[in-house]
Specification:
CATH topology of the largest domain: Rossmann fold
Helix content: 25-40%
CATH class of the largest domain: Alpha Beta
Order of helices and strands: EEEHEEHEHHHHEHEHEEHHHH
Number of strands: 10
Bound molecules: adenosine-5'-diphosphate, magnesium ion
Number of helices: 12
Largest sheet: 6 strands, mixed
CATH superfamily of the largest domain: P-loop containing nucleotide triphosphate hydrolases
Oligomer: single chain
Structural class: alpha/beta
CATH architecture of the largest domain: 3-Layer(aba) Sandwich
Length: 308
């Protein structure tokens, strides 16, 4: 089943303000793509558009074999959410209903989709190293953060979705649990032949699981490509900044250079020119006047200059 995703010219707004602006991105069938950027860059807004959520002002989110999520009516969206696109929401660790057991919530999910048989939850939970009977009879407070995250993945996949979106699945987990969750993401992705989008502020997570990466800043994708290439040879100054900000386990501590300044908020994203220029170490005059186009998978005036 080919279920890649093509996002084309997508703009998503809150009020009049675009949180995602003219974004184009292809998620190839069967790949894991990492969407990375600091908090507030528009990652969750972009990810939610795969469910047809948000005020999509222009552009399209086409899922192969499903259709354009931006044009679907409510009934069609309800039918495909969960069944075709599985979603683990940001802070999913805390989004279970505290008053109902996991099993009861599973039955409710099944009922809302007119599905009778959710025994598929058992092998999924077992695959993730959990005891299905125990987990299904548990309430949220009886499960650890890592267990809840796995329950979230089970909910996302139990209706046999082929596209999986995970929004910050390892944030707020300790290092060992993070590593476990990423291992599970890799395994489940491969077992089921999924098309996966993993959203994170952590370049390390991308390096760990994603074969492709898209770097987001101020509502734009500023660079994308194969993870190997982008991490070995980052071309956009923002990508370089993100990578230099990673603390290394070996060598002097001062190699990690935090990116100076803070990312813009919706109200302060410049309407004209490059959205990154205020923090950019190599900005030029043209950067204030003209927004750089995405050329050869990078949107930066300076990269264009050095390439010539
Ligand atoms: N419901 C909302 N109403 C208004 N602004 C929002 C809302 N949700 C997010 N934003 C703003 O949109 C921008 C992008 O947010 P988001 O997509 O959550 O970014 P990220 O996931 O990268 O942290 C931020 O400036 C954020 O404050
Ligand atoms: Mg987010």
């Amino acid at each position: 089943m080919n279920m890649g995703v093509t996002i084309a010219g997508l703009t998503v707004t809150y009020g009049d303000l675009p949180a995602v602006k003219d974004v184009s991105l292809r998620l190839e069938d069967g790949t894991i793509t990492g969407l990375v950027g600091e908090s507030g860059s528009g990652k969750s807004t972009l990810a939610l558009s795969l469910l047809g959520h948000g005020n999509i002002a222009s552009g399209s989110v086409f899922i192969d074999g499903v259709g354009d999520m931006s044009k679907m009516d409510k009934g069609a969206l309800r039918a495909v959410r969960g069944a075709k696109i599985g979603y683990v929401f940001q802070a999913a660790q805390n989004s279970l209903n505290p008053l109902l057991t996991v099993g009861k919530q599973l039955l409710d999910l099944a009922k809302s989709h007119g599905v009778r048989d959710v025994r598929g939850a058992h092998p999924l939970l077992r695959r993730m190293g959990l005891d299905p009977d125990r987990v299904l009879n548990s309430y949220q407070h009886e499960l650890s953060g890592g267990m809840r995250q796995r329950v979230g993945i089970m909910f996302a996949l139990v209706l046999n979705a082929h596209v999986l979106v995970l929004d910050e699945p390892t944030t707020a987990l300790d290092m060992i649990t993070q590593a476990n969750i990423l291992q599970i993401v890799r395994e489940v992705h491969a077992d089921r032949g999924l098309t996966t989008l993993i959203v994170t502020h952590d370049v390390g997570v991308v390096a760990e699981v994603a074969s492709r990466v898209a770097v987001m800043y101020g509502g734009r994708i500023v660079e994308c490509g194969s993870t190997k290439e982008v991490l070995a040879n980052p071309r956009h100054p923002y990508t370089r900044g993100l990578i230099n900000a990673i603390p290394r386990l070996t060598g002097p501590v001062d190699v990690a250079k935090p990116l100076p300044g803070t990312p813009p908020t919706l109200g302060t994203i410049p309407a004209v020119g490059c959205v990154f220029r205020a923090r950019c170490p190599i900005r030029m005059d043209v950067c204030s006047a003209q927004e750089p186009e995405m050329i050869d998978d990078v949107a930066c005036h300076a990269v264009g200059v050095t390439a010539k």
